[in-house]
Amino acid sequence: MRILAAMSGGVDSAVAAARAVEAGHDVVGVHLALSRAGGTLRTGSRGCCTIEDALDARRAADLLGIPFYVWDFSERFREDVIADFVSEYQAGRTPNPCMRCNEKIKFAALLDRAIELGFDAVCTGHYATLIPTDAGLELHRAADNAKDQSYVLGVLTADQLAHTYFPLGTTPSKAVVRAEAEARGLSVAQKPDSHDICFIPDGDTRGWLAEKVGTATGEVVDRSGAVVGSHEGAHAFTVGQRRGLKLGVPAADGKPRFVLEVRPVSNTVVVGPKEALATREISGGRFSWAGAAPEEAEFSCDVQIRAHSEPEPARAFVSADEVRVVPDRPLDGVAPGQTAVLYVGTRVLGQFTIDRTVSAVPVDA
Questions:
Q1: pTM (2 decimals)?
Q2: Per annotation, catalytic residue among 48, 123, 198, 301
Q3: Range(s) within the chain of domains with CATH label 2.40.30.10
Q4: Start and end residues for every CATH 3.40.50.620 domain found in the chain
Q5: The domain 277-359: what is its CATH number?
Q6: Annotated binding residue at 32?
Q7: Has 12 been labeled as part of a binding site?
Q8: pLDDT for res 29
Q9: Which CATH architecture has domain 215-272?
Q10: Is 101 designated active site?
Q11: Given this model, what pLDDT does residue 71 score?
């Protein structure tokens, strides 16, 4: 196959490209320039897609003896990921930019260009596996549960899965990948993993958002509507947050309070007891299936709402315009804007963006 290897500059994508070469594929390496701030350098292990990463990717490609290019996707990234991130927060939702990047950049813009240029598939260093069946390819969890990245790939469609290649999916651990990189002479063998949001490398999401959308004083209220404090911008808060709340009125029971809801139109933040974070139902209208769609409108599954959270047994209800999920036990601290990924065993069935949540604790409780 003709393979376009997406090389981030990290150890995973370098080893994935090496395995593609070793398997006999015709491989070309490409690094995506997602920022036009050309002088940007990595700080510690935060961020990715910096000039340092591009140089690391080039060195790996040279060692593997494959052609290497840098493609400027900064405009698409700004529009489809960064602008979406800002608008979601302004709407009171909690977005996952890694999901949007996979959906809009790596497996849409990049894959589309790869196919136009005659490539058969895009290779990445994601930890996930593809299993062929009579109905087509299925996306499954990786062999290493600790490194499994199937959650952030839940946005991929059947057509996209047909043109993807994940060489690391069956690898038993990240330690094996690092040892292999060392043996191959790859300089990134011990390079730290990237963390946090790549376009906010210092990790200060609140400060970054304040620069983008400004500040505006608003009220913090409890579930009854009583004012208990103030804030400088509802966009700086997300459901489940405890730190950063400036509450002038203590709770009657003396217990700490958490963000339960963000209302951007009125610039209001609603707080309450931790128990009120329990969610008995979630639903959303923006959904997709990673392969064949479910045959039944109602079925049992597992639902996962964060990249590193545990999957929870649930019942899913699918209509023409919505997916609704009722977990067997309440989920904790779910926010609109998060992505819910549905699994059947190790298989990724599909995903939806959460638009609505229903608390397991009545307002008057």
A1: 0.90
A2: 198
A3: 277-359
A4: 2-184
A5: 2.40.30.10
A6: yes
A7: yes
A8: 98
A9: Roll (2.30)
A10: yes
A11: 94
Spatial distance between the Cα atoms of 214 and 160, rounded to a whole number of angstroms: 38
Q: Kind and range of the H or E element at 12?
A: helix 11-22
Closest CA to 159 of 209, 122, 203: 122
The length of the chain is 365
What does the DSSP assignment read for 71-97?
EE-HHHHIIIIIHHHHHHHHTT----H
Residues of the chain below pLDDT 50:
38-47
Q: Which residue do the tokens 């196919």 mark?
A: 115
- pLDDT score for 123: 98
CATH topology of domain 2-184: Rossmann fold (3.40.50)
123 catalytically annotated: no
What's the burial of 288, exposed, middle or buried (CB within 10 Å: 0-12/13-18/19+)?
Answer: middle
**Which of the residues 49, 101, 123, 301 is marked catalytic?**
101
Q: Say what the pLDDT of residue 47 is.
A: 46
pLDDT at residue 203 in the model: 77
Tens digits of per-residue pLDDT, 10-20?
A: 999 999 999 99
What pLDDT is recorded for position 364? Answer: 58
